[in-house]
Amino acid sequence: MLVNQKDLNFLLYQVFNANELTELPHYQEHDQTTFDEVIKTAHRIAEDYFAPHNRKADEREPQFNGETVSTIPEVKEAYKHYADAGLLNARQEYQDGGMQLPALVHAAYSGLFASANPSTAGYTFLTSAAANVIHAFGSEEQKSRFLPGMWDGRFAGTMALTEPDVGSSLGDLATKATKQSDGTYKLKGQKMFISGGDQDITENIVHLVLARAEGAPQGVKGISLFIAPKFLINENGELGERNDVQLAGLLHKMGYRGTTSTVLNFGEQGKCTGYLIGEEGKGLSYMFKMMNEARIGVGLGAAMIGYRGYLESLEYAKNRPQGRHPSTKSNDSKPINIIEHADVKRMLLAQKSYVEGSLALCLFASRLVDEQEAANNEDSALLLDLLTPVVKSFPSSYGLKANELAIQVLGGSGYIREYPVEQCYRDNRLNPIHEGTHGIQSLDLLGRKLWMKGGKGLQLLLTRVNKTLKNCQTHDALKPLVDSYRNKLDIFSKTTMQLGQSLQAGKVDETLANSALYLDMMGKMVVAWLWLEMANKAQEVFEESASEDDKNFLTGKLQACKYFIEWELGEVHSQSTLLTELNSTCADMEEAWF
Amino acid sequence: MLVNQKDLNFLLYQVFNANELTELPHYQEHDQTTFDEVIKTAHRIAEDYFAPHNRKADEREPQFNGETVSTIPEVKEAYKHYADAGLLNARQEYQDGGMQLPALVHAAYSGLFASANPSTAGYTFLTSAAANVIHAFGSEEQKSRFLPGMWDGRFAGTMALTEPDVGSSLGDLATKATKQSDGTYKLKGQKMFISGGDQDITENIVHLVLARAEGAPQGVKGISLFIAPKFLINENGELGERNDVQLAGLLHKMGYRGTTSTVLNFGEQGKCTGYLIGEEGKGLSYMFKMMNEARIGVGLGAAMIGYRGYLESLEYAKNRPQGRHPSTKSNDSKPINIIEHADVKRMLLAQKSYVEGSLALCLFASRLVDEQEAANNEDSALLLDLLTPVVKSFPSSYGLKANELAIQVLGGSGYIREYPVEQCYRDNRLNPIHEGTHGIQSLDLLGRKLWMKGGKGLQLLLTRVNKTLKNCQTHDALKPLVDSYRNKLDIFSKTTMQLGQSLQAGKVDETLANSALYLDMMGKMVVAWLWLEMANKAQEVFEESASEDDKNFLTGKLQACKYFIEWELGEVHSQSTLLTELNSTCADMEEAWF
Known about the structure:
Largest interface: A-B, 102 and 102 residues
Family (chains A, B): Belongs to the acyl-CoA dehydrogenase family.
Cofactor (chains A, B): FAD
Oligomer: homodimer
Organism (chains A, B): Litoribacillus peritrichatus
Distance between the termini of chain A: 46 Å
CATH superfamily of the domain at 5-151 in chain A: Acyl-CoA dehydrogenase/oxidase, N-terminal domain
Domain Acetyl-CoA dehydrogenase-like C-terminal (chains A, B): 462-589
Radius of gyration of chain A: 24 Å
Protein name (chains A, B): Acyl-CoA dehydrogenase
CATH architecture of the domain at 5-151 in chain A: Orthogonal Bundle
Low-confidence stretches of chain A: none
């Protein structure tokens, strides 16, 4: 099972009210039926063409013989089915051949692929994201040259940022771009950790490359963005000669093995043609359009790999008899299924709270994308900007924790490749790293995002939170949870304010030293809020719901909310203490003392 | 590097005073020189014969062709060097050809092998442990038949407990033993997850098998322990005919791949000869001798895999330039090494506190073994019994957390197999599972160990803790840490008392429902105490220490203690609340609500 369909519907149509989006002019042709149809189609493709080779792609990772890369044939087939269903450009406008689908619905179906097979899904996500950048910032000529192939599945896309000596510190990147008389550029440099940087799935690969034009300043302001395809494309749209982009080698990951991770040499023979996107020096801002989408995508992927592991371990626990309750002294009775053991319930409930909470967070972020793009809602844009580090990192941390618990539920079976959860754990370990590590996200959050426009983003968040709290007050079952949450919210708000003051007082390094702790605290507060929102909605619809099944599902939502607030927010107090005292124990540690 | 040698010496000779052991008659032939010699030899063998194939054994895991298992030849060679150095039976008495080495020193050198190559080391540990059981409980004939080969490296040993349908619930195991007229037994049944159950490293394998003799009662009281060698051994000590123990298949683990994990069929053809150890029905108590040693061994292995990852990430952080401090706005300055980033320091300091704390815990437990065995100290035996679940589980949890952080320090490089830390992470994930999961350890601790002999074990622990606190009070630098620790200790003690009362009131299932939380809390309290003990010793020797290097090392100890108490004990308060209120959120969760 890729997701609990009941949960996905609950989130889409009750918590995040996807139907409301169809009132916007941009989405007016849609209704719940068209949304469901797309999701159903995606579900079928994910189950039929992605899930079946998830293990195989892990066992038989892509090979490089010095000339070409080979992947198992199932990947190419899956990619084709994905493209043929119109899923690569589903969010594009009708006039461009798209379905004009909301980001919320797009996220819902994307998640199914991440659950089924994150490695193969990786190629599709990268292509859509790269195409979006070209669509948003490319010239008409660039669009007409590259987008048709990217959207119909003949081409794939990559984002080539990282360099071996530079890592995440993009301001230092050294790839050079030299302008030619015809307006094109010659690129020269090496990029590393480029996902999908080479493969045999598509006939062409469109690399988006960050490079520094000759004479451009040091730092991020000197960075430009270029298109460097593997094969040049002729005027008539046909593939032309091979561009000077060479695969230097594959990197061999712990998980996510099906997606190639590459070292690429651009212009080793001085012949790598690159096409400037937009203006020189604005490369990073264009790339961040893609990065922000990619960060939501990473969060969603992490949530869904976590979700998959949760479902696998739940299924196992329901069917595995072993042991008895501690109070049962004799071995005469039959063993109980392990789902009856309190500690197994804890591990399942924790997983449920992490992964359903993470999915809710990513869908919420996607809804904000819709509000921003289709309704021009600036508040939504600001809130999304604030929350992006959280959306990227909370699911990456807690989805992985969920996978760790899934292994533990299965015990010895969880640790062997004969069962699926160990792969989830290996795959998911990538997510706290790529598209900006936790450390980078936390600096972005505490050093920048919180204070944009005078801290308005946080105000917008708190307004929404308070609205939820008010709604929850009407349900007796939720009152103790609201009280407990309010207490933590107060601590969180005061902590934030104090950190802001200390930044204003110029204590930049001291305040940001423990930013990772702040990121974790804020992640828990945001997800706990979403759990209250879910619990509130569950209470609202409980009476109307006809079936016993539905009632059980809604009761589970309430219980998971209870768990998350009682068990996971306990740390907020001690985290706040460390943060507000600007605890310097870590920062004070000197290299020689280790 | 396998360990920080300065740290190992500090722990052995200053914190745990290994020299004091030489005052015991059993160890009187030893002195620090002999201890150091053994450790030095072990270090050399670990570096020369174990570390070099750690990655290779992971990449080329053992293969089963339906007839025989093949491992890479380096494993056999390493095993031989280990045996030839007398390390398999180093703890045995001189009269048996051993070195009569203290458990403390044995743990110190064993840890080096776990750091270098946990998979290959696994074979040696299993053999020593199985031999110990035969030595302790076997008949003279059994000893003379099996021990020489196990001690000189011709034979290996296993512990065959788990069965496919039974898992950890040993009381339900179904393997049968039928007594024959000659006093031997015929065994019949299937065992699963048997480490080293087959291999091509040694000429024979001595399986210790739990089985139920015909007519024996259900439950744990009906379990007996048998020796079932792969090859029978003739009177003259030579290998005889093949016993009916068949490899049904290999299991394919996520990590620890070099150690075979097997499914074994005993007596498929009705011809599996087993020799009863000791008396019928006492099998579990014999096996627990081995299990308790194995549990300390698991803790030690987890600590040392964590330690290895820590050292690798420390080395990387010292040499990898990337980025600048947040307050540095321009890119004109040179990038700093990442060890200068506060968040990287945090990840390194956390690792240091986990792994050095875990190693201290395991060495402490080993010293208790010495006090128990060589000094007949019943208090030490009781304290060891109490702490065994903690010794097994704290390093398994926190060593793994350390490995997770090691990956994060390396970023993208941490996630690829071109660097060593991802293997540490995969290897270490086994440790929270085997030899009793966290859940099982926590039930053992809270349901049984704490209350043995009227709770005397805990009293013994608290007496030691209070002594440390008193010593620490004499150092100004430690006073705030002592105050903070005392506050948590008070909470911990009250929590324990309340749980004891609630067990006495018959609320067994309710009290044990959250036992995993208690296990974590107690683990942190015990390790924080050991950190104070280390910090106290560091303060004591600081003035006498001559070199700048030593002073830096001792300052680092103090800082890690500070970190552990300030950053890791914060949760104790909220954990205590959940425990004392007998929080039932997890236990109340019904299967249908998931």
